[in-house]
Every structure is written in structure tokens, then in C-alpha cells.
Amino acid sequence: MQLYSPLSTTPKRKAFRAPALATIDGMRIGILENGKLNAEEMLNEVAALFVERNGCTVRMLASKKNASAPAPANTLVKVAQEVDFLITGLGD
After folding, report:
1. For residue 67, what is the DSSP state?
2. Which residues belong to any copy of the UGSC-like domain (predicted)?
3. What predicted TM-score, i.e. pTM, was given to this entire model?
4. 47, 53, 56, 63: which sits with the fewest CB atoms below 10 Å from its CB?
């Protein structure tokens, strides 16, 4: 029998939250849909509320193929260059 320690020996990841936006008025929105049924439609409806209430514009729709996996880094880099904030969520 071999026993393993439950204590992690890997280095801790340094994750930081993005700073809060002072305002979202007039900002550019990106949408990241996860490929699930109705995700794109639901996120477009949410984005429409930002457009109506805050004068935002929808700049980009990005997709990922696997709902349970993170978006590819190159997708996030591309989107980040064209939008001020990103909305995402699950469809079904």
C-alpha cells in the first residue's frame, strides 16, 4: 500500500480579479458563448439590455467548443483587444 499526503506541494497560483469598471456607459461588449443550446441567444438578450440601458455596443461574439473547459488563451487575447468587458454564461 502506498499513502499520499493530502497537502499540496505545487506552487500556489496567483490569481487577481480585474479592477471594477467605474462605469459601463458606452462601452464595447464581447460575448463568449459556450456552445450549449441557446447560449448565444440568451447572451445576446443580456447584451441587448446593456445596449438599451447603458448605450453599449456589441463588438464581438466568441465561441468555445467545450462548456466545461476554459476558453483558449488566444481567443481571450483577441477578444480583450476589441472590447471593454466580456459577458458569458451557460445556455440550455
Report:
1. T
2. 3-92
3. 0.76
4. 53
Local structure of residue 68 (DSSP, 8 states): T
Tell me: pLDDT of 32 over 90. yes
- Contact status, residue 62 vs residue 32, Cβ threshold 8 Å: yes
pLDDT band at 45 (very low <50, low <70, confident <90, very high): very high
The total number of structural domains that make up the chain? 1
Range of the domain at 31: 25-65+85-92
Residue 85 to residue 64: CA distance in whole angstroms: 17
Residue-averaged pLDDT of the chain: 89
In a domain, 29, yes or no: yes
Question: Cell 467605474 identifies what position?
Answer: 22
Q: Tell me, what DSSP letter sits at residue 72?
A: P
Residues 6+ apart with CB under 8 A from 87: 29, 30, 31, 32, 43, 46, 47, 50
Q: For residue 7, which amino acid is it?
A: L
